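Thread amino acids onto this structure.
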């Protein structure tokens, strides 16, 4: 009887594993195939997109690398790429400068108003910034009128500040949970050695929280890099970010039937995120598995 039960358990486990493998393979194929198709399409000529006998999944007859040159030059994708790099880097720096000390304090110290502040950050998780983007625009426009300046709109620093502010609730939530899992013995040892709270945070706690910080950087990088609505609302043609520039490129090239250039623009947007994800994949899974809340 025991052997029969073991056989049934083993067979059910094997069926479950087979189901999981099939589901994962299907998911991987559904992601890899469209990405690979976009890469191939970016190297095709216009003649390979138009006609009755065109095979959409065929390899390019000739590698049209000039599609990328045209996208970078005439379509100004290089300029938009630089704007996105500046805005994303500024956003991440501002976010970490504020979020790391705030998360450390909320996780390690008890003070008046702690519950109120923590509740406020948790409430921020449920606010979709796309719903308040018009209010942000009106607020910044009013600030320009009141001060008689043009600083608060079409400014990459202000856009980065808005990105960092809207990402604070999620970032503080994740980092606070991770700081709570770290043993207090390290802090006690450094305090005995004469280190202050700030030096303890910078020298001991932040390096120990590196997996969670990398996770935060990756998630927020993807959010800032691909963000469209806020950048479209706050920036004009000169300081557009890459997603806004890509939308304009797609509209122009669709009208001109220059599909190869349009797909080249898509590759320019996708490539940095793919490279970053592949490079930090192990750190991402490590940070997510260790970042659970511990009361």
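Threaded sequence (295 positions):
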């Amino acid at each position: 009887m025991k052997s029969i039960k073991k056989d049934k358990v083993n067979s059910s486990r094997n069926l479950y594993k087979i189901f999981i493998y099939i589901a994962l393979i299907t998911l991987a194929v559904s992601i890899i195939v469209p990405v690979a198709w976009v890469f191939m399409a970016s190297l095709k000529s216009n003649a390979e997109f138009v006609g009755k006998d065109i095979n959409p999944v065929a390899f390019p007859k000739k590698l049209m690398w000039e599609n990328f040159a045209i996208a970078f030059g005439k379509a100004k994708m290089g300029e938009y790429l630089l704007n996105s790099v500046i805005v994303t880097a500024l956003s991440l720096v501002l976010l970490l400068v504020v979020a790391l000390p705030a998360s450390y304090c909320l996780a390690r110290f008890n003070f008046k108003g702690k519950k109120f502040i923590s509740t406020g950050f948790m409430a921020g998780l449920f606010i979709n910034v796309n719903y308040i983007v018009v209010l942000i625009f009106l607020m910044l426009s009013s600030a320009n009128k009141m001060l008689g300046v043009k600083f608060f709109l079409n400014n990459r620093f202000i856009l980065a500040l808005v990105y960092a502010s809207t990402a604070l609730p999620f970032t503080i939530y994740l980092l606070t949970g991770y700081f709570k899992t770290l043993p207090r013995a390290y802090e006690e040892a450094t305090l005995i050695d004469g280190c202050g709270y700030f030096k303890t945070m910078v020298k001991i706690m932040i390096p120990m929280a590196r997996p969670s910080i990398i996770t935060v950087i990756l998630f927020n990088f993807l959010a800032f890099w691909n963000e469209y609505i806020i950048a479209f609302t706050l920036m004009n043609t000169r300081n557009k970010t890459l997603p806004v520039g890509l939308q304009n490129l797609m509209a122009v090239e669709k009208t001109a039937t220059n599909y190869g250039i349009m797909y080249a623009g898509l590759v320019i947007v996708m490539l940095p995120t793919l490279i970053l994800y592949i490079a930090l994949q192990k750190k991402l899974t490590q940070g997510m598995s260790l970042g659970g809340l511990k009361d």
